[in-house]
Design a protein that fits this description.
- With 131 residues, this protein is α+β, with helices and mostly antiparallel strands.
- The chain has a single domain, classed as Chemotaxis protein chec (3-Layer(aba) Sandwich), CATH 3.40.1550.
- It starts with 5 loop residues before the first strand and ends with a helix.
- Helices cover 37% and strands 28% of the residues.
- The radius of gyration is 15 Å and the shape is globular.
Length: 131
């Protein structure tokens, strides 16, 4: 399973966003796991892939502060959301507050997962890495 592409879509005030067909087809399921990503975006995974990743995250030393901090951020913000018949998900308010500032978002494939970025932040990020 490989996520790829860049798609600009709208998000409603209630947090409903349509996942592009190529992203939905790669998921091959109706449950999506969404969590805080790195870089002020959201990260999305298939439920099956997330469960595998979660197992490896649990396998870190409780004495490793950096790993524990990452684990806290990821697990405390993780939600399971269901795709509706039109391929939309509803992002919880806490995740929208963290990552989304406008009504336009960019959904990007990042290989093993997809990300949801506020369009303005995505444009700034792309300009920064293109230097």
């Amino acid at each position: 399973m490989v996520f790829y592409g860049e798609y600009e879509v709208s998000i409603t005030s209630s947090g409903r966003v349509a996942l592009p067909k190529k992203i939905r087809d790669t998921l091959a399921a109706t449950t999506v796991v969404v969590t805080k990503g790195f870089g002020e975006c959201l990260a999305g995974y298939s439920k099956q892939d997330w469960e595998k990743r979660a197992e490896t995250l649990l396998d870190v030393s409780l004495l490793d502060r950096e790993q524990i901090d990452k684990r806290r951020i990821l697990f405390s913000s993780t939600v399971h959301v269901e795709l509706d018949d039109q391929g939309r998900i509803v992002l919880p308010k806490n995740l929208r507050t963290f990552a989304i500032r406008s009504k336009k978002v960019v959904i990007t494939g990042v290989g093993d997962h997809f990300e949801i970025w506020d369009k303005t932040r995505w444009d700034s990020y792309m300009k920064e890495i293109a230097k």
